[in-house]
């Protein structure tokens, strides 16, 4: 129940932060491959028709750049830092650690900047080429980058209070979970977006996207929990072998 609660919170923050962020990046750098519609189409593995429905439901990068104000950027930055804080709190809960001191808030700024870089690399790799070989290389690159990012994210947001070795199973579980979620999205969410767009319009599309973001949050926090369980079992087996 707590995982689901945190996943819902993750989805809400993502809707307030992630989609506007990738839209603005796509507007500033059109060659990045970002923009909420294209980004969601690639990470969800949507069909061209479903991706078109998502693109219709969100603001285009050109309109976003024209309508963005200084106040809007400030609110987006505030929610972005809150996003990092929520993730840090979740990781601390998983490892039963005390909350980091306030002077560690600079880590959220660094994390948010590298998170944008991670999105740029992942989306570029997913959209690299059309042949099976190119798509396979892009998929492997995305898996490698995801593993490294979530491995580093845990270490960085936990203020280096947990070893790299202990955090590796969680990063691997999160990466594998996201792969499974993408396959599930292509099989379930893609046709669901198409049908909901006809039945409910843009609202139906956003509801499906919100459901996917909830799944991402569940995988991110659940992967960290599974990683700690695997680490504890490995540690306990090692101690039993020595005794």
UniProtKB/TrEMBL annotation:
<feature type="transmembrane region" description="Helical">
    <location>
        <begin position="69"/>
        <end position="87"/>
    </location>
</feature>
<dbReference type="InterPro" id="IPR017039">
    <property type="entry name" value="Virul_fac_BrkB"/>
</dbReference>
<protein>
    <submittedName>
        <fullName>YihY/virulence factor BrkB family protein</fullName>
    </submittedName>
</protein>
<feature type="transmembrane region" description="Helical">
    <location>
        <begin position="132"/>
        <end position="152"/>
    </location>
</feature>
<feature type="transmembrane region" description="Helical">
    <location>
        <begin position="164"/>
        <end position="189"/>
    </location>
</feature>
<feature type="transmembrane region" description="Helical">
    <location>
        <begin position="209"/>
        <end position="230"/>
    </location>
</feature>
<feature type="transmembrane region" description="Helical">
    <location>
        <begin position="108"/>
        <end position="126"/>
    </location>
</feature>
<keyword id="KW-0472">Membrane</keyword>
<keyword id="KW-1003">Cell membrane</keyword>
<keyword id="KW-0812">Transmembrane</keyword>
<keyword id="KW-1133">Transmembrane helix</keyword>
<dbReference type="Pfam" id="PF03631">
    <property type="entry name" value="Virul_fac_BrkB"/>
</dbReference>
């Amino acid at each position: 129940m707590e995982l689901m609660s945190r996943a819902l919170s993750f989805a809400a923050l993502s809707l307030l932060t992630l989609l506007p962020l990738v839209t603005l990046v796509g507007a500033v750098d059109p060659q990045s491959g970002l923009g909420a519609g294209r980004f969601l189409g690639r990470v969800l593995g949507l069909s061209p028709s479903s991706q078109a429905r998502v693109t219709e439901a969100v603001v285009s990068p050109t309109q976003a750049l024209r309508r963005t104000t200084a106040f809007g950027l400030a609110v987006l930055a505030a929610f972005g830092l809150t996003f990092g804080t929520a993730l840090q709190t979740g990781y601390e809960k998983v490892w039963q650690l005390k909350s980091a001191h306030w002077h560690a808030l600079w880590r959220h700024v660094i994390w948010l900047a590298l998170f944008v870089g991670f999105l740029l690399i992942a989306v570029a790799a997913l959209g690299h080429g059309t042949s099976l070989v190119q798509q396979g290389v892009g998929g492997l690159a995305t898996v490698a980058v995801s593993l490294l990012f979530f491995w580093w994210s845990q270490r960085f947001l936990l203020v280096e209070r947990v070893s790299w070795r202990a955090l590796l199973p969680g990063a691997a579980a999160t990466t594998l979970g996201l792969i499974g979620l993408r396959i599930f999205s292509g099989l379930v969410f893609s046709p669901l977006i198409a049908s909901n767009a006809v039945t409910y319009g843009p609202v139906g599309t956003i509801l499906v996207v919100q459901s996917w973001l909830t799944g991402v949050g569940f995988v991110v926090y659940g992967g960290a929990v599974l990683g700690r369980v695997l680490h504890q079992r490995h540690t306990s087996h090692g101690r039993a072998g020595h005794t």
